[in-house]
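Need residues for this backbone.
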């Protein structure tokens, strides 16, 4: 079992930045592909970013490319999503997830955190 806990969400003005962290316990994250997803009110869970176990490969949804960066520190069992130049449409609950595949599909991830709220005001 892997327990994931997100932190770092909050309220920020458009153009601002936030740094989300996902801390893991139970097992080392080094064996897992990691992903960040988000869910806005009334919408489904949307892929944001993913990273392979060794951190060598990352992927992003088009709407966040050039603004968000996913990274990981396997030694400390943490995955980070740095979010810059935030826009109101980035407002959502952000979740981190762990799985055995490098994928954009939420159903392919096994372990999920409880989420952290990000609100971007205009």
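Answer:
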């Amino acid at each position: 079992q892997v327990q994931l806990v997100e932190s770092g969400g909050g309220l920020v003005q458009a153009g601002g930045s936030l740094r989300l962290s996902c801390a893991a316990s139970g097992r080392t994250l080094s064996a897992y592909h990691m992903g960040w997803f988000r869910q806005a009110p009334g919408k489904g869970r949307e892929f944001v970013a993913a990273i392979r176990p060794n951190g060598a490969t990352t992927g992003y949804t088009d709407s966040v490319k050039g603004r968000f960066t996913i990274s990981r520190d396997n030694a400390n069992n943490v995955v980070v999503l740095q979010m810059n130049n935030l826009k109101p449409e980035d407002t959502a609950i952000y979740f981190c997830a762990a799985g055995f595949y490098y994928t954009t599909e939420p159903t392919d991830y096994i372990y999920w955190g409880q989420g952290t709220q990000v609100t971007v005001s205009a």
